[in-house]
Amino acid sequence: MIKMMRTVFTQKTHDGTTERLLQLALAYFATYIATGIAPKYFMNTAPGYPAMNDVQYMVYSTLFSSLFCVSLVIAWKWYKFQSQGKITVLGMTFPKEFLYIIPSGVCTAVVIPTTTLMYLLPISVMVAMIIMRASIIVISRIIDTIQIYQGILTKKVYWEENVAVIFALFAVALQLLNFKGAITLARDTGNYMLFLPQLFVFDPNNFAFLTNAAAVTILTSYIIAYAIRIYIMNYFKNTRTKGVPYDNKGFFAVEQLSASGAMVLATLAVVFLMTPDPSNAKDFVANFQSAFSMPHPQWFKAAIAGIPYGIGAFFSVFLFMFKGRTATFSGLVNRLTSLIAGTITTLLVFLLMAQKPPKMEDWLGLIIILVAIYFLGLAEKKRACELATAHEIEPEKDSEITASCDTEQKRS
Q1: What is the pLDDT, as a whole number, of residue 123?
Q2: Whose CB among 243, 255, 365, 385 lies 3.0–4.6 Å from 171's, allowing a Cys bridge?
Q3: Residue 410: pLDDT band by 50, 70, 90 thresholds?
Q4: In this structure, how many other beta carbons lie within 10 angstroms of the beta carbon of residue 118?
Q5: What is the DSSP string of 67-116?
Q6: Mean pLDDT of the chain
Q7: 402 backbone dihedrals φ, ψ, rounded to 5°
Q8: For position 280, what pLDDT does the model report?
Q9: Count of C-beta atoms within a 10 Å radius of residue 13
Q10: What is the pLDDT of residue 40?
Q11: Residue 256 burial (C-beta neighbours within 10 Å; 0-12, 13-18, 19+)
């Protein structure tokens, strides 16, 4: 393990290796923390803080994060896509992969604002946000099943990956449990036998989103858009033929360019075509338009603070598309990394800005996530060995994974 971590922190690694996977996960972890702290600062209403609203911060931070991504992929010329073939439509010839990568970018443009939109609703959206987090894990597992059935995915999903899915969903579901109420009742009554049943006493207000048409529409849009996007990522990953480079950088470039284009069109539509409701302080259109017409004094700082989100987008996509892994595995690595980073972010915000500390269920969830990661580690050892044996990846020099693979082969 020490040798592996030395490689992770000091060397350039090969595509598809465990060491590269850890590098991407650690980088995503760091950017996710920065991305999580920034809105807590800019939307803090305490004296001395900017006190932006959700929409203002979304507009300013998304503006620079998207511009940052697009600028880099253009500067690095990642848009020069290495295709498996060309197609001609209406006299224009372009890589045939664009037919599904551009829709993936449109789906990305849907995913980005939907979380913010959910928070703007005048109801409790806790359960809806939990569904959003869990949906990626479930969707990834379903997509593997679909693509195995279609013959697109030829690898099997290891049982360790399925166990990790169960633990990950359990960790997310902990947020639904009534820990505070159960502890209070047990302490006040002195009857600790009441603790367990009280955990499952749910506040009906947390399910109010089910009767709110806007909330259901936003949640459905998020899930459908993410499902299409993850399917497309894995379709691209699993249909590369031998001799064609696995150009995930090209995929990212085309997706981000199309996502940015879609968001620009949506922005113009909201600013020039939609009618605001000034009487509603949480009206999305009114807040969106005022973000441009009456910019917040610290809008530029908020825009700069959005850059870590743009950097994180690189690592997030590369994790989802990680070479040789199933959607189940990649989706879990992506989501578990963000969940751990979320808990650490809450702790840092508590220490730095005196906001709410992580709850008991956050710490319990973190422990369960570590169990899920343990099973993912077992799956990764098997997968890396499988890929190295099939010469689909080039292991790092003196790789511990390769050594364990050799040991297993000798035993068998």
Answers
A1: 76
A2: 365
A3: low
A4: 20
A5: HHHHHHHHHTTTTS---S-EEEETTEEEETTHHHHHHHHHHHHHHHHHHH
A6: 91
A7: -65, -40
A8: 84
A9: 19
A10: 92
A11: buried
Question: Token pair 């979380």 is at which residue?
Answer: 115
Which amino acid does the sequence have at 215?
A
Q: Rounded CA gap, 248 and 330, in Å?
A: 14
Distance CA 136, CA 122 (A): 25
139's tokens = 């969707």
Cβ(118)–Cβ(216) under 8 Å? no
Q: For 94, list phi and psi in degrees, rounded to 5.
A: -155, 165
Q: Where are the domains of the chain?
A: 2-176+212-406, 177-203
pLDDT tens readout for residues 6-29: 888 888 999 999 999 999 999 999
Which H or E element spans position 141? helix 126-150
Here the tokens at position 146 are 């679909």
Element (H, E) at 315: helix 307-320
Query: How high is the pLDDT of residue 412?
Result: 47
Q: Which two tokens stand for residue 277?
A: 């409701």
Tell me the one-letter amino acid at 278. Answer: P
